[in-house]
Structures are given as structure tokens and as C-alpha cells.
Input
Amino acid sequence: MDVPAYIEANKGRFFADLKEWLAIPSISGDPEHSGDVRRSAEWLAAYLRDQGFPTVEVWETAGLPSVFAEWPAADADAPVVLVYGHHDVQPVEPLSEWDTDPFTPTEKGDRLYGRGASDDKGQIFFHALGIRAGLAASGATAPPVTIKMLVEGEEESGSVHFAELLRTRRERLACDTVVISDTTMWAADVPSMCTGMRGLTEAEITMFGADTDLHSGSFGGAVPNPLHAMTELLGALHDADGRVMLPGFYDDVVPLTDEERELFARLPFDEETWLRTAGNSGAASGEKGFTTLERVWARPTAEVNGMWGGHTGPGGKTIVPKEAHAKLSFRLVAGQEPLKVQEQIRVFVQEHTPPGLRAQVQTGGGVRPCFSPIDSVGVRAARRAMEKAFGKEVLFTREGGSGPEADLADILEAPLVFMAVGLNDDRIHAPNEKVEMPLLLKGAESAAYLWEELARALR
Amino acid sequence: MDVPAYIEANKGRFFADLKEWLAIPSISGDPEHSGDVRRSAEWLAAYLRDQGFPTVEVWETAGLPSVFAEWPAADADAPVVLVYGHHDVQPVEPLSEWDTDPFTPTEKGDRLYGRGASDDKGQIFFHALGIRAGLAASGATAPPVTIKMLVEGEEESGSVHFAELLRTRRERLACDTVVISDTTMWAADVPSMCTGMRGLTEAEITMFGADTDLHSGSFGGAVPNPLHAMTELLGALHDADGRVMLPGFYDDVVPLTDEERELFARLPFDEETWLRTAGNSGAASGEKGFTTLERVWARPTAEVNGMWGGHTGPGGKTIVPKEAHAKLSFRLVAGQEPLKVQEQIRVFVQEHTPPGLRAQVQTGGGVRPCFSPIDSVGVRAARRAMEKAFGKEVLFTREGGSGPEADLADILEAPLVFMAVGLNDDRIHAPNEKVEMPLLLKGAESAAYLWEELARALR
Output
């Protein structure tokens, strides 16, 4: 029995099991559901044991538990792959906007509705089916690579204890490649793989002037105004071409390759539609020389998130305000280090603080970017696996934000491969979350092929 | 009996009368004291009648009353001079910081303490003594110019009904020159005259982007950020030399003459001391090529008074905010028109609104600047009068802000002359307001000479 045939024969059971798991409201952000998150972990652990994993453990953290499972290859020298996903889910409010109960998984045509159907229970679930399909097709009793799974319980509440868990369990988690199944494809008929996520660092800048607000009639025009200095500083943050002017900001940026740009360009992207999703933004704009997708996926940015100072109430008040404040965030791409960028921020602010004012910079929120080059061994293997399953060319995307993926790459010192079949219209984090059931089966098929591909590629 | 002798002989009575008037708490900003403001007007009217003014009237407004008095010259063709001051006073809070009761006028050495002693009862009061001293010295029964007095009752609460009063009573107030007695001299031993006050216009700018705040991971760097546009707009409001970049902003500015700059420069000005009064500002700064005094007195400015947008609460929030706001005020100098500057603001904002954003500008608060050239007939006459009274050279100052003076000049179509003897350390608007009694007598002496000088100069 080949992989597709096994999956076809077992899909009924697969979805029945998934629905049982989806019925558990494992909302990690709501303390009232902590028990449900634990129940979800126990359910998954039992399920993976039942699927044949020789080792399955529930790993406690200072918060909510992760599930760890391991199925060793027959060959002790075979590559080791760690699959990452999460079993906790987002809150469901506003409940009134759901057409079906979020924890009563409901099929409508090819779609399965329910919280977690796409993000991320459905996507982690297809791996078990994939492994069994691979074994059925090969007739082996163990997969061609050692498969470890780590299914987190706090991803939707900020992965607060995840890095600590990775450090503590570093030896048990040791692997050659990490496979992330928590992203999306471009479209149901445009299979694609994510190859990177932007990192982040944040800064709050305060510009101090006089001890008090000053009367602008008596002092205006003769003492420095902190709001002027702040607007001049922030106004100088980008040049006319939209490039970020922090000193050295682009020095370490891994540039997009011509091949990746060409592959991005082949994605069927409609800018008008995208602008509507961007709160009806009036125009695309940003760094000159890059497309909208390149800008949000693969270029670093500086964004003023908030700013305030002086009189902000009704009416006028003719003052020179005593201070000005701004909150900034920087999206970082492959090659950039949050700590290095934080230092660039401090230098930039210092260079733009005029005589007579004092500036203060508080930085934080360092998340490193993650990146999988499209010509890396793992990405190429995963692409072959997906192309075999989908029967068509697989393109590439990236994501503009990031979660705990960089910690996996950094702490486990392993390259990342993103393989997932969610769609952007799955309404994750929103009412009426759904997953396309045929795509989950394609995910299982891709996963089945992936182990063979990785076994060959990594050996 | 010459002018000084008359003043010396009558000073006891002068201060006794002034104290009686100062005891009336004519706080125009406090509705509970409206009756006191009326009582103050009636008191002053009775006093001026007693001093010999043939015509004295209390003029009602929609708010609190002004006092009008007229003493015609014997010669029907003589010039007409209108003296402006106000009989209302500032509130006295915090009362606990007063060393003496604010409405129990108290002499300590050469100083007379009490609310209104300097601003403005004391200064308007010296005119009556000045007129009588002039008559005593000349032996005439009428002054050499027709003297009109207009003593407002709402100056400390915004002169809300003053322009209307001027328009209604325009014919009665017709004059060749307005003498303002509501400013200060540089120092007790540095007599000076104010020659101008800056005007004002205000603007509120709003920059609109997307319909909602956007996630900066998904959209940052690819749609316009209203806070970026606002900081770039405001950052471009001044050039590197501190000049205001509104198109045409300086076109109509009456430049400082070399003589006025030279006279400003002779004022004993200590920048370190001034910076301490400026809330311990760290440095003087502003338009290149001008001194601090020139900047606050005689150069137009643009000041960002307040700004806000996006996330301003604790912690970070990685958004592209949907809008940004700023409040600005512009100090205007001789030659500039508020309405014209408001149009320049709109043009500047339009030129700095990037594609995809929408800007809105609300303007208001037009106060025209007022200005008395130092070589004008009235200023030269008043300078001669003060120099005769003080026995030394009189220098020139200006004021950075403005009150109802521009309305007087505009509506009555008459040049302004500022003659006053208050000091910057009189603590007007603050606890323990005082006036230097010898300076009030010098004011009376200056006023006595002024009518002769103006009669000669304006004839």
C-alpha cells in the first residue's frame, strides 16, 4: 500500500481522532483553562503512544506542559529530526461571531471548523498519520530518520517558558534539523514553504528639555524644544528611499537571492486586495527597490509605534513642552542581531540629540530573526517532499513576524525547515477558524515523504 | 512748581489713594468677584472725576465694565492720545505663599505689595498724577493734548469682549496715538520701552492612515505610517539654521534695524541667568544669526506644543498606528498676518503628506503682532519724556507674547507707544506682587512730560 492509499484508507479515523482533540479547549492565555491545556497534553501523549511512538513524555514547565515524543530510526546513525508545533489555542471571543461552537468541531464540505483546527492542532496532527503512512509504504517498523516531536503548550500566550525548556532539555532535543509545522501556504492551489521570519527589537526614547513646560511667548524660539528634537530624530530615521538610517543597520543583512526574489514574484499577489486587508491603506510604500512581499518578509524595518509629548488635550496651549516620548520597534531579518541593533539605536539617538537636551533610550524585546536558505539541504528535501505530495511546484514565502522559532534554531543549533499547510484565510486567532481537510491529508503525505528525503539528504 | 516738585508734594496722597483702589479684589477670572470688578470700575471713575477729568463713563460690555475718561485739550486741533490699561487683576492663589494679604496693600521700604500694584492698577494710576503735575507746572487748566483713558476690566481673563467694545465705541475712542501702560522696563536702573509684541496663530494637524492600527509584523515597512509622515513633516519645519520652512514665512517680516539690534545689545543680559529662568534649559538655541533677545522678541517662530499617536501606554505594542496628531503655534512679528501664515501651514502640510495618507489641518487663534518702530514720532516723543524723567538713556525691548494691544492698533488705526515702569521681578500673576514706588513716581513724571512732547511732535 503506497502513502496516498494508506492516507485515503485511514482518513476517517484521522479526522475522528482530531475532532476529539479539538474538543478540548486548551486556551493557554486564560488561567481558567489551564486544566484543559493539561488535559490536551495528556490526550496527545496517549494518542502518540497509541500511534506507535516508543517514547512519549509530558514535560512540565513553570507554566503549562509540552509533549515530547521520540521514535528512533532503526539505524542509530540515521539523522535526527525534531518536529515543532503547539497544542494550546487562542481564546475564542467574541463567541457570538462563531457560526458553530468553537469546541464542537464541525465538518462543512471539505472544511473542518473549530478552534485549533488550523493553528496548530490540525497541523501537528498530520505528522502521526504521515509517519504511519510512510511505514506502511516501506514495510519498515521504524522511520528512516529518528523523529522527535516537541508540542508546546504556551505558544499562544507568548512561549514564556519555552526557551528555558529548550535549554533544560537540550540534550534530549538534540537534532540535525527542526521541522516547524505552524505556518501557512500561499493558497490551496499554490503550495509554498516559509523560509524565514523577521526578528524584533524595541526601543523607547525620551527627550528631556527644561524642568517644566515653558511659555512659548516668553521662551519659544530661543530654547530647544524636545518635540522638535524628537521629530527631527524620527524624521531622519528613514531616508528618501525608505531606508533605515541607523548606522550599520544593513551591514549584516543577508540579501535576498535573485532566485528567491524570482520565486516570490511568481506568487499570485494582488496589491489592491492586500491594501484592503491592510486596513484600507491608501498606498503601498516602503524601501525603494523592493516589492511589497519583499518588504514585509525579507527587509528590516523601523516603525514608530507611538509618540507623545506636550499638550494633547482639547484646545491650544502655547508651550515649549519639557519632554517628548516615542516607542519604536524594529523588524529584523536574517543576519541581524537584536543587541547590535539596540546599540545602533543608542548611537543614532546620541547623534541626533541637540545641545541643551538630554536623551534616554530603553531597549528590549530582542527576538532574533530566523531563516532557512532555499538552497539548504533541509529546505530542498522538504520542497521535494511537498512537490511529490502536491504534484506541482512549491514556491517560497516568509513571515513578517515571529514566534519561538528563533529560539529553536539558536538553542538547539539546528537549521529550521518550515512545512505546513495552513492558509491565510483559515481565520486563526479569529472566530470561525477552519482547516481545509484535503490539505491536512496533503500535509500527512508530504510528511511521509519528508522522512525519506531527509534520510537521504542528511546522511 | 515744576513737575518733580509737584509729584514730591503729592506722593503721599497718591499712594494713599492707590492703596484704597488696590484693596478692591477685582479678579475678573473669578465670577465670585464680578461685583468687585464693578466696584473697582466705579471707584476709578469717581477718582478720575475728582482728579479733574470732565468726562468719565463706566462702559458696560457683555462681560465686565471698562472705564472711559476724557480730558480735552484747550486747543480743539490738538492731537488726541488714548491711554490704555486695565483695572482687573489676576487671582491670588496660592494664598499661603503671600507674606501679606494681597488686598491689604502694604509698604515695605520703597515697595508697595498687593495684587495689582504693578499689573496694572499702579501703572494706570500714575497717569492721573502725571496730568496734574503737568498742569501745575504749565499753569494751564487743560492738557496740551486731548487725553482719553480706556481702562479695561477683563484683560486678565482674556479680553473676551474688548475687540467688540473697541468696534462699538470706535468714534469715541478715535485718537492719533495709543499709549499702553501695561508692560515692563528692563530694570530699575535700566529704563526702557517696549516697541512690539509678537502675534500668534495656531494649528492642529492630523495625519490619517489605515482604518485601524495594523500589526507591524504583517504590514510594517510596506504601508505608510502616519507617525513617520508626521515626524518627517515636523522634522522639516525648521532647517539646520533654525529657520521656519513654511513657504513664504519670512516674506513680510519687518527686519530688525541695525539701530534696534545695537540698542538691544546694550541691555545688560546674562544668558546663564536667563536659562535658569527658562526652567533650567540646557542651552540657548534657535534661529541662526540672532541673539536670544532678538529671538524671543523680534523673530517669528514655529513651536510644536503637543503631539500624540499610536501606543502611548506602558510596554510595547508593535503596530503601525492609524493616525498621528500635533498641535502647533506660531509666534508672529511685525508684518506677518495670521491668516496668511495659516494658509502657508496648509500648503506646507499638503506638500509633506506622502501618497496613501490623508492630512487635516485646523487653524485658529489669530492674534496680529504689534510694533512701534523706534524712529516713529510717538516712540521718539515718549523716549524723550522718559529720558527727561529718568535722567538717563532709555533703551528698547519687546515682548514675546501679546494681549489686546494689536486690537487697539488695528481697530483704532493708531500707532502704539508703550510707556510703563513695571519690572520683570514684580511677580505679576504670582504671590507677593509688588511695585517699586519710586518707579511709579518716575512713571508719573514721564507721563507729565509725554503730553508736551506728543503735542509738539504730533502737531
In short: DSSP finds 13 helices and 20 strands in chain A. The first strand of chain A starts at residue 55 and ends at 59. Chain A touches chain B through 82 residues (CB under 8 Å).
